[in-house]
UniProtKB/TrEMBL annotation:
<protein>
    <submittedName>
        <fullName>Histidinol-phosphatase</fullName>
    </submittedName>
</protein>
<feature type="region of interest" description="Disordered">
    <location>
        <begin position="1"/>
        <end position="20"/>
    </location>
</feature>
<dbReference type="InterPro" id="IPR016195">
    <property type="entry name" value="Pol/histidinol_Pase-like"/>
</dbReference>
<dbReference type="InterPro" id="IPR052018">
    <property type="entry name" value="PHP_domain"/>
</dbReference>
<dbReference type="GO" id="GO:0035312">
    <property type="term" value="F:5'-3' DNA exonuclease activity"/>
</dbReference>
<feature type="domain" description="Polymerase/histidinol phosphatase N-terminal">
    <location>
        <begin position="90"/>
        <end position="165"/>
    </location>
</feature>
<dbReference type="GO" id="GO:0004534">
    <property type="term" value="F:5'-3' RNA exonuclease activity"/>
</dbReference>
<dbReference type="InterPro" id="IPR003141">
    <property type="entry name" value="Pol/His_phosphatase_N"/>
</dbReference>
<dbReference type="InterPro" id="IPR006311">
    <property type="entry name" value="TAT_signal"/>
</dbReference>
Length: 568
């Protein structure tokens, strides 16, 4: 029996004719014997062309490689492929009138995201008793309608999980006949708010792992075509301890794939009276009873709009990457109520009874006390996808083909690690380059600069690009480790341009040990030595000032890593 139907169970937003066959042929989790004759023929063609091969495993760069699809082309929909992938901007953290603190219709968020250039979006209303009871069911027809109305943006259904013993996270599934039933069962069984499991006890930590296991089993049994989890605003309240993050990743590495490198609510730091005058990203908490005691005071703030875990070179994110295991970063809007919007909730709203607010109405007064931007307006997560399809985007996220930016700082990024001087294509973000011991390796970087105004009506100028390199040392003996000593900024390139394309080549030299490299770029308007010292990071992002943090004057981009692994 063919598997094309697993890729588009609805008639809205599905692939063009034949693309389901292409996706199934590329998906090596589907045995040859379960493909239709046409799908099997296409897979054989890919094999002959060398387009199906080994890739980075979910278990980590030090494990045994597994096969993974790697076919290029056939993107369609008028989108241009670059470096063999369709780079789709997206947002996996968006709220609607089905959230207790939301306001907008699904179609409002989708149309705005589409207008601001997003190719994919995830609707993630808050997990809670009311949402679990009726909201999951009620929002689905609106998502289905949005898929039909806006065909060139993929719209996933998900929810914002109250992670037992921890903070919030995005959970979403690929569209299918069981998407509602699966999400509903997941929320009723494993949501920390629904189950009263918020405190940081071992039992509640185990419940979070059980939730991830449930999602993995749902995919294994093909109840849903795919499912993913990412931790949201991980440092905001200090609830996501290092050992919990490692526990999620290690328990189900094909489901738990990363975290928000930058939170939403990026307008929240704009000074009064033009903004809320709070903490950028609403990072304004202090340690509580369930916070991880080891985190420093600085961890509760953002740095250049990015979470402390990501912004600190040699910090928690790097300590995870130094284990050689995938853990990716994203950037999202967390859009609830948009800065300077003139909408208000519809009259007569009763969220508790109806699981939603009435449709928004025009209020006539701009709300400068809101801290959010529309999806795609400021924060973007760019995913290298093998096609315009739900499963393809999820595969790109899982593979770590991701870079993120704020305020349209750059328009495009291509990064390749390759054997120096060979002309080989090498590997891209999220992947691992295997070389012989002592081989010379280079990192080729191509950046398409902004070239046009962002939504603040300014053309951003990229001032500097930093190459960050670290040693891969294997699993941490202490699961609560949140630093790694052998990661630092190894090269900086001055740019100071806002149009055209710039290229750089960083020479890693002879590689005699496993390493990883990642990129960071800035408009150069705010900077400070990193928290671990100027020798590690001489010009990193500065800590954001509470009540006076203009997001448009502090722009950064970050890439996910590439590993370089010498064979001994």
């Amino acid at each position: 029996m063919g598997h094309g139907h697993h890729h588009h169970d609805h008639d809205h937003g599905q692939e063009q004719p034949g693309e389901g066959d292409v996706a199934a042929a590329r998906d090596l989790s589907i045995p040859d014997g379960e493909l239709s004759p046409g799908q099997l023929s296409r897979r054989r063609m890919f094999r002959r062309a060398g387009l199906l091969g080994a890739g980075l495993t979910a278990a980590g760069v030090l494990g045994t490689p597994q096969t993974a699809a790697a076919a290029d082309g056939e993107f369609g929909r008028g989108r241009e492929a670059k470096d063999g992938y369709l780079w789709l901007a997206g947002d996996h953290h968006i709220h609607t009138q089905y959230s207790s603190d939301g306001i907008y219709r699904v179609i409002d968020q989708v149309r705005h995201g589409n207008a601001y250039g997003l190719g994919w979006m995830v609707i993630t209303d808050h997990g809670a008793a009311t949402h679990a009871k009726i909201g999951v069911d009620k929002v689905n027809p609106d998502i289905v309608a949005a898929r039909a109305a806006v065909k060139d943006t993929l719209v996933f259904q998900g929810l914002e999980w109250n992670i037992p013993a921890a903070e919030h996270g995005t959970v979403f599934v690929a569209p299918g006949s069981n998407e509602v039933a699966t999400l509903k069962e997941f929320e009723n069984s494993f949501d920390g708010s629904v189950k009263g499991a918020g405190s940081n006890t071992p039992q509640n930590e185990a419940l979070a792992i059980a939730g991830l296991n449930f999602l993995a089993e749902a995919v294994r049994r093909r109840r849903v075509p795919d499912a993913l989890f990412l931790a949201n605003h991980p440092s905001r309240k200090g609830l996501d301890s290092p050992h919990e993050i490692r526990g999620w990743r290690d328990a189900q590495p094909s489901i738990a794939i990363g975290m928000e490198g930058a939170p939403g609510h990026q307008a929240a730091g704009i000074a009064k009276p033009n903004g809320p005058g709070g903490g950028r990203g609403y990072y304004d908490s202090n340690p509580g009873a369930d916070s991880f005691a080891g985190y420093p005071a600085e961890s509760y703030k953002t740095f250049g709009g990015f979470d402390w875990m990501t912004a600190t070179v040699g910090g928690l994110w790097d300590s995870l990457l130094a284990e050689g295991k995938p853990w990716w970063i994203t950037a999202n809007s967390d859009a609830h109520w948009v800065h300077a919007d003139t909408s208000d909730r519809g009259p007569g709203s009763d969220f508790t009874a109806n699981g939603k607010y009435e449709d928004p109405v025009y209020k006539g007064v701009a709300n400068f006390g809101s801290g959010d931007f529309w999806p795609g307006y400021y924060s973007r997560t760019h995913v290298g996808s093998q096609g315009f399809a739900y499963r393809a985007v999820m595969d790109g996220l899982r593979a770590g083909r991701i870079w993120v930016d704020h305020g349209g700082l750059i328009s495009g990024l291509v990064v390749r690690a390759r054997a120096a001087g060979t002309g080989q294509r090498g590997v891209t973000l999220g992947d691992a380059l295997h070389v012989r011991q002592g081989a010379r390796v280079e990192l080729a970087i191509e950046i398409t600069l902004a070239g046009r105004p962002n939504w603040a009506q300014v053309v951003p100028s990229l001032a500097r690009v930093d190459v960050i390199q670290g040693d891969v040392t294997g699993p941490a003996a202490d699961k609560d480790t949140f630093t790694t000593p052998n990661t630092k900024v190894v090269q900086s390139y001055e740019v100071n341009r806002n149009s055209g394309t710039v290229t750089f080549t960083y020479q890693l030299g002879p590689v005699d040990r496993p390493v990883y490299v990642r990129l960071r770029g800035t408009d150069g308007k705010r900077g400070a030595p990193g928290l671990l010292g100027a020798a590690v990071d001489p010009h990193g992002p500065a800590i954001d000032v509470y009540g006076d943090a203009d997001p448009w004057n502090d722009l950064w981009f970050y890439s996910n890593p590439i590993w370089v692994l010498p064979r001994r």
